[in-house]
Amino acid sequence: MFKHISHRIALQFTVFVFLLFMVNGAIFLSIDFTNSRRQTQNRLERISRPALEWLDLDEPTLPPRMPPDVLERVRVLNASGETLFAGIFFPPVPASHRGGLSRFMVDDERMAIFTTRPGKSGQVIQIAEVDRLQKRDTPLRIGLYLLVSILVSTLTYLVGLFFARRSLKPAEEMMARLEQFTQDASHELRTPLAALRSSLDLALKTGKHREGIESAKQDVADVTKLVERLLELTSLDQFHFARSSVDLSSLVSASIDRYQALANEKKVHLIGSVDSAVTVQGDSALLSQVCSNLLANAIKFSKAEGGSIYIGLKHKQFTIRDEGIGIPPETLSHVFDRFFQADPSRAHGGYGLGLALVKRIVELHGWQIHVVSAVGKGTTFTVTFG
Asked: Which of 28, 58, 81, 302 is deepest in the core (most CB within 10 A)?
């Protein structure tokens, strides 16, 4: 869909540019003809001025004092229109007493003739030259202009297509995320809703309404929790926050204190190494969620016999390393995907949204998160910032 839109945008812009070229071409061609006529007239006028001085109009014959390059392009007419003199290159055109610039076709060439009356004698001087802007050249000029316009329009289309696709890339990615979100949400909601229906059906059949209602309540709670996490992800896709100074050292230390009881219950020893006065620009609530989700995830996937979890905060780096069950290499690249769980049995609970939330929050801050893991040895999450 977005490729089609990109082509349409580029094509519409190209048509606009091409039409603009055509309008400009028509305007400039008209201006070119007008300027050529004016320049030709000005040039012939300048030539005629010395010619008027060189000519002795009181004598019936032309004076020999005129320069040859001017004399060969001059024609002199008397008051009755008879030719008194015509230079060897003067075109054979009808005599005219109309002043100003005239154009005639002579042997497939366009000639420009300037006519002037120097005095009251009625005699007329005409000076001719080959018109520099021939009409027969007009189709060639138009063709060349069309060729250049087509080439420029083609380049415009390619450049426009590139920028259209580049501009629509965020919208395309958002649409892809929305489609994936819809598919995943539909799939994940189907399971707890089916369980809820089964619990209610079983209660109706057996008459154990209390047990059925309790089971249904738990199923509803699961659906509610899933919907809440989905809404969190949806809101983050459209989230824009005003950055403020956040004491990351205090935030990480608070997360360690908050999960100490759960770690003790799971026989997990939390080892904190938090540098003091590490501050960043960001959203404290979201960053707290990053710390909490990563720490809760490390505790949840610890081994049954317990172990240690290292929480480290240094300048430009936050690390959580556990000694848990680890993540298989074939699934490691998918741990940040929505609804993905490395444990297909889901024995550890959850919906596979926690790490997706963490990654989205990290990306919102312009940071990066990396994960390394080995099965049976543990997993390390590293958030780098600057």
From this structure: 302
Identify whether the C-beta of residue 256 lies closer than 8 Å to the C-beta of residue 318.
no
| Cα separation values, 178 from 146, 150, 174, 233, 333, Å | 45, 40, 6, 11, 21
Which candidate, 149, 158, 175, 153, places its Cα nearest to that of 7?
158
Look up residue 226 and give its two tokens: 């899933």
- The residues pairing with 112 across neighbouring beta strands, listed in sequence order, are 103, 129
CATH fold group of domain 241-384: Heat Shock Protein 90 (3.30.565)
Which conformational region is residue 142 in: left (phi greater than 0), alpha (psi within -120 to 50 degrees), or beta? alpha
The pTM of the full predicted model, rounded to 2 decimals, is: 0.47
List beta partners, residue 247. Answer: 279
Residue 14: other Cβ atoms inside 10 A? 20
How far apart, in whole angstroms, are the C-alpha atoms of residue 354 and residue 348? Answer: 13
Q: Which two tokens stand for residue 74?
A: 């001059």
Tell me if residue 384 falls in helix, strand or coil. Answer: strand
* DSSP result, 69-97: HHHTTEEEE-TTS-EEEE-TTS-------
Poorest-pLDDT segment among 44-53, 267-276, 292-301, 340-349:
340-349
The domain segmentation of the chain, as residue ranges, is 2-133, 141-236, 241-384
Q: Distance (Å, rounded) from C-alpha 207 to C-alpha 225?
A: 28
pLDDT at residue 189, as a whole number: 66
- 142-172 in b/e burial notation, b at 16+ Cβ within 10 A? eeebeeebeeebeebbeebbeebbeebeeee
10 Å Cβ neighbour count for 70?
15
CA distance 202 to 211: 9
Q: What is the pLDDT of residue 292?
A: 85
